[in-house]
Amino acid sequence: MTERPGEGRRAAVLTVSDRVSAGTASDESGPRLADLLTALGFEVTRATVPDDVDQIRDQLEAALGSHDLVVATGGTGLAPRDVTPQALAGLLEYEIPGFGELMRAEGRRSTAMASLSRSLGGVARRRLVLALPGSPSGAIESLEAVIPLLGHALSTLAGEAGGHPRTATEEAGPWT
């Protein structure tokens, strides 16, 4: 792998799972995603949270303060407890439709069920946020599908590569 879009950047991997957070199942997706992100040059931290909108949102908001890329794995299906997209709805400033489209297209190469995924990419506080499936294969396929976009997306959001630089006011908020 020659391109390392994460060089000098931090990524957070949040596993969303009732069973993993309760200790009744092992986390298979989180470690695999962390390994792939590390290979891409990211410094990676990990956490686990149950399928609860408020807890997911709290963990994601905390990660946004110190990470360039925030990746949630799990909770993107159709089950009643799959609430990751709902948690992101109140957090994202905008969605990047191409990320979800690419992830589902890649997933459909393995299974038609990928069309049911609510995986997505979006922006919050000029940070890139991805919501990936919880299955190890779905999570890795989805992340691999968007790797060619990561470097440019992160550089643009950081104000590099012709983007608009962050200002002190923007970092602190407009009312300080």
Return the string of H and E elements: EHHEHEHEHEEHH
Share of helix, binned: 40-55%
Number of structural units classed as domains: 1
Specify the CATH homologous superfamily. MoaB/Mog-like domain
Structural class: alpha/beta
Distance between the amino and carboxyl termini: 43 Å
Q: What is the number of E strands?
A: 6
Overall 3D shape: globular
Strand order, sheet with most strands:
2-1-3-6-5-4
* CATH fold descriptor: Molybdenum Cofactor Biosythetic Enzyme, Chain A
Structural overview:
The protein has 176 residues and is of the alpha/beta class. It has one domain (10-68, 76-159): MoaB/Mog-like domain (Molybdenum Cofactor Biosythetic Enzyme, Chain A, 3-Layer(aba) Sandwich), CATH 3.40.980. The chain has helices at residues 18-22, 29-39, 53-64, 84-89, 97-108, 136-157, 168-172; strands at residues 10-16, 43-49, 69-73, 94-95, 120-124, 127-132. Strands 2-1-3-6-5-4 form a six-stranded mixed sheet, with helices on both faces. The chain starts with 9 loop residues before the first strand and ends with a helix. The model has no long low-confidence stretch (mean pLDDT 92).
Briefly say what this structure is.
The protein is of the alpha/beta class and 176 residues long. It contains seven helices and six strands, in the order βααβαβαβαββαα. It has a six-stranded mixed beta sheet, with helices on both faces.
